[in-house]
Amino acid sequence: MKRxxxxxxxxxxxxxxxxxxxxxxxxxxxxxxxxxxxDWRNRNKIKTLNGLAWLSIPVEVKGKFFQKINxxxxxxxxxxxxxxxxxxxxxxxxxxxxxxxxxFEDLYLNCSEEYLSQINYKFITTINKILDIDTKLRxxxxxxxxxxxxEKLIGICKECxxxxxxxxxxxxxxxxEGLAEKEGIKMEWMDYSGYKEYTQLHPPFEHGVSxxxxxxxxxxxxxxxxxxxx
Length: 230
Description:
This protein is of the alpha/beta class. It has 7 helices and 7 strands, in the order βαβββαααβαβαβα. The protein has one domain (3-225). The model has no long low-confidence stretch (mean pLDDT 96).
């Protein structure tokens, strides 16, 4: 039984995003969908001494109301230095920060990609390697997309010869599960509840932060605090 997931690329996503990738045979970046502001595409949260802080990649949006995620370009080049300075400042005292410092410093300071999707892909694939996730990654632009929210997703499933479509719970608001069943696609819904807490700087504990927080605080033990490795 072949299981796939289809989801927009996010910037340094939280642990649940990587669990979703690790639980499927193929993961499709749904990046020829419309870019949405104040979402997870170009930003994520980290822990700081003063509470949660957003790291946001500056992107071109003025006058581009209907641009797709994979058409969204970076508007400033110095964001990489700012983000790395913020990360290194706030996590330098984390137990395992030194184990990953060189990897992420190199990733940030040599990041010259022009498009948001390319940047997200670069960070996600690097973190996949750290976690030993070998799921095949593809782009929705590889497929012939048809009209209709559910129909598009079913079409991708069929082109992938997938039997099971694993989705986050937010899709329940619009996805027609009955239509999927008629097309021979079984739906499974990701459960993001019940994650274990780990040693985290700057209490109180917060689950909804970038996975960098988990890596820097738990190192190789990070998998023990995720769902797809247990």
